[in-house]
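Researcher: We're reviewing a set of sequences before deciding which ones to prioritize for further study. For each one, I'd like a predicted 3D structure that I can look through quickly. This is Trypsin-like peptidase domain-containing protein. If possible, include the structure in C-alpha cell form so it fits the rest of the review sheet.
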Amino acid sequence: MRARASPPRRLPPAAREPPAPARARTRNRTRGRTRNRALGRRRAGGRRDPGCPAPGRRPYGGDATGAAPAASEVPAAPAPPVRPLHDPDPYGTPPYGGPGPWAPAPPVQRPVPTPAHGTQLPPGAQAPLPHPGMTPAHGTPLPPGAMPPVHGAPPAGVTPPHGTALPPGAVDPAGAHPPHPGPAQAPAGPGTGSQWLAYDPWAAPAGPAPARPAPARNRGRRGRMLAGALLVALLAGGVGGGVGAYLERNGGIGGPDVELSQPPAEDRPRDPDSVAGIAARALPGVVTIHVRGGAEEGTGTGFVLDGRGHILTNNHVVEPAGSGGDISVTFNGGEVARGRVVGRDGGYDLAVIKVDNVSGLRPLPLGNSDSVRVGDPVVAIGAPYDLAGTVTSGIISAKERPITAGGEKEDGSDVSYVDALQTDAPINPGNSGGPLMDSKARVIGINSAIRAADDGTGLGGGQGGSIGLGFAIPINQGKRVAEELINTGRASHPVIGVTLDMTYPGDGARVHTRTEDGSPPVKPGGPGDRAGIRPRDVITEVNGVRVRSGQELIVKIRSHRPGDRLQLTVERGGEERTVTLTLGSADSD
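Model: Here's the predicted structure for Trypsin-like peptidase domain-containing protein, in C-alpha cell form for your review sheet.
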C-alpha cells in the first residue's frame, strides 16, 4: 500500500538533497525488497526462490524469526524526496512542472520580492555555488583570525549572513508588499519544494527602494568643496574687476589711444605777396580750356584780359578747334561757357578767345616783363593734365632765352620764335596759356613750353613732365600781340627784309646768297637794303647782344615792335661794321 504524499516541508538552509544516483539506487532497492517479499510468501512450500532469504537469515522486512510482519504492523516509511529533472535555479526560478515529460506547462509565475534575510531554498534543495564576484546567501566569510563584529554588526563592506540590513525606519519590502497569490501549482511529486507564485510580466513593478541617506562624512566634504568654490569665485571676480578698471583707465591692453596735438583751425589772412596771397587773388581770373575738333582734342589754360570776356592763351591750345571746332571755357568757380576764337598767330604762339554773356569776370593785372630780374619769385597757375587750379612756384632762372617751338609742319609755318623767360616753377602739359605771376600778383609771362627729358626737341616737344626748365612768353610781347588780335584779328611781325641761311654752321646769322624762288636774298628797298646789308654778310650782334645762329637773330627781332630802331654788328670780308636799321612790318598771313 502506497503512503499518501504529505505537504511539502520547508527545509533549513543547510539541508542538501542526496545526489541523483543515490536516490535512484534507493528507489530501485525499495522496489526490489517489496517484490521479493511477495514472491517468498507464494513459494513458501516449494524450493527456495533465489529472491528469498537463505535459511537461518533474517528475511527482508521481517523479524528475527523470519516471519513477515503484517501490513498493519509495518510503519510506513517516509517517501524519499523526488529529485527534479534539473538542478534548482540559483535565481529562484521554479522547475517547469513535475517529473516526467508528461507534466503540464506551469502557469505564468510572479516573482516575489526578495526578503531582507535572503531567499529560502525549497526542502531538500542544494544551494548553488555562488558565481564569481557574487556575495553568497549566507554572507561573506571572515578571513582567518578576524574578530566577529560587535553586537552582530558586520564589518564595513561585508554582507551579514542573514542578508542586507535595512536602514533605521525603513519598511521591509516583503512586509510592505506581500506576495500576490498565484494560481494553483502543478501537481508536485513526492518531495516537491516550496510553493512558487505566478509571474505576471504586465504587472506594475514594485516601488523603488528608498534612497539611502548620505553619510555625514560626505556631507561635510561637499560643504567644504562648496565653500572653496565660492571663495575661488569671489577671488576671480575681484581680480577681474580690478583688471577691467585698470584697462578702462589706461585705454585697453595696448595702452591709451594715440591722440596727436593739433591747433584749432585758423582763418587768419595771408600776406598778399605770399604764394597763398597771390593764388587767392589770381585764381578767380584763370580758366581751363577744353578744345575738340576733327580727330584732335586738347586741354590748356588761359586768363581773363578784360571785362568784355577776352581771354589770352597759346595758339597751340586752340589750334585743334580749327575754324569749326568746339571750345569750352571753365572758370575757377565751376561756371562753364562756350568760347570762340577772336584771333591767333602761330609765329608768336598766341591766341585770343572770347566768351559772351558771362558776368563777374575778374581780369588779371598785367606787369612789365622788362622789369623782371633773374632770381625774382614767380607763381605759375594752370591745369596740368586737366587738374584745374594747380598752383606752383619758383623763380626766374634766365631772361631773353631764345627758343623755338613747333615745327611739325613741313612748311615751318607752325614754328614760333620766343625770346622767353626761363623759370624753374613746375610747368606741365596743360599749363600752356596760363599766367606766370610776379610777387605782386601781376602777369609777367604766358607759360608756353617746357624742355622735356625724353626727346630733347625743345619747346613742347615731349610729354615727360617738368624737369625744372619752363619757358614763358614775356607779357610785353603778349600784350602787343593780344591788342592786335583783338583790334584787327591778326598780328604784325617785325622784319629786316633779308633771307637768312639757316644751314650756316658758323657763329652768327649769315645772309643767304640765293632764294628758292629765285628772288634776291636782300629785298630791294627793304629795311636791310636801306641799312647797307649785302648777301654773305654775317650778323653777329643785335643792340650789343651776341647772336650765334639764324634762329637767335629772328627771336631777337621778334621781341621788338615794327618801327623800332636796332643797331646791328655786321661782319664782311673779315671786318666788322655797325649799321642802324628800322624794323619793317609783315602781317601774320
